[in-house]
Design a protein that fits this description.
heterodimer, A: alpha/beta, Rossmann fold, 5-stranded parallel beta sheet, 47% helix, B: mainly alpha, Helix Hairpins, 0% strand
Amino acid sequence: MKILIVDDFSTMRRIIKNLLRDLGFTNTDEADDGNTALPMLKSGKYAFLVTDWNMPGMSGFDLLKAVRADDSLKTLPVLMVTAEAKRDQIVAAAQAGVNGYVVKPFTAAVLKEKIEKIFERIQ
Amino acid sequence: MDRMSDKEKVHRGLEPEVTEKLRQQSAELSKSVENGDYVRAMTLINELGEVRDQSLYREVGRLTRTLHESIRNFQIDPRSAEQKEVLSMMTDASDRLAYVVQMTGQAANRTMDLVEENMPVARAMRDEASALRDDWQRLRRREMEPAEFRELYGRIDNFFVSLTQDAETIYGGLSEILLAQDFQDLTGQVIQRVTTLVKDVEEQMLSLVVMASHVDQLTGTVHQIESEEVSAEQGVGPQIKAQEREDVVSGQDGVDDLLSSLGF
């Protein structure tokens, strides 16, 4: 199962990559914003998307909307891992069809819980 | 103190001799109009206009001088050595912050390198220990063949050797992770210096803004300021003082509560 991690900071991508590996997900790719992520998603057969919100270029929120608007991607599970903590933003992300929302700073346990919850719902 | 008295003058508006002149001339004006002396009235109106312009010029002149003084106090004149230093402080504030980003990035990557090196060591140690423990239990239950026991004997011997080495490796890794946190001291100092600089600049900017607003008041200038709303869609970054704000969640529990209240 292939997972795409999108964050503009390489350290955060690395942290998420390590945590995912501990959870047994070893097949991961990285992108630094929505503009690089979207073509990868369209051609890469990813089973799961983990994205930050605030990134230069295309934001994670716009990426989420683009994924939901694309026929081949619209069912892709999306987990947002972000420092964005405004109520309006969380509501907007939920309405745009996000499957999980983790606010930074986060713990390994929270990330695990959210990912497991998302996969439970899919199965 | 000089600046304070200037401010007071501006707040009071016109100078006493000007108001006195205005009063005199307006009385004379209404008298001329009553008497039907319109030529005199028009002259008076012109004079009134001149008085207004002159006092305006004087105020603007004074404010311009104070503004000029303040700009000089702003310490952006690079001619003296002392001010050169201040200027370089201003211009390299962003270099300093870039240095903070670089240092924190380096520390994070160094820490993660060490964690990634040491995790497999710890995992291998755990796996071998638990395998040995299972076999040891079998030995104690006398479920082991002599040949198997001899093999276990050798493995335990090897395990002790590698355990010493691996524990040493992990200990060394942890010490280096500890050292990698030394950036906090350096970046902390840099950030504090930049914070002080920002505060100074803010104070001086504030007095410039106050003066500029006085000029605007006197000249009757109204600015069309379009406030640029930051788009929450692009993202606004981490929230400071989240606990004190109504429109921001203060952590993962807040997010979970909000989403479940919406039925997600």
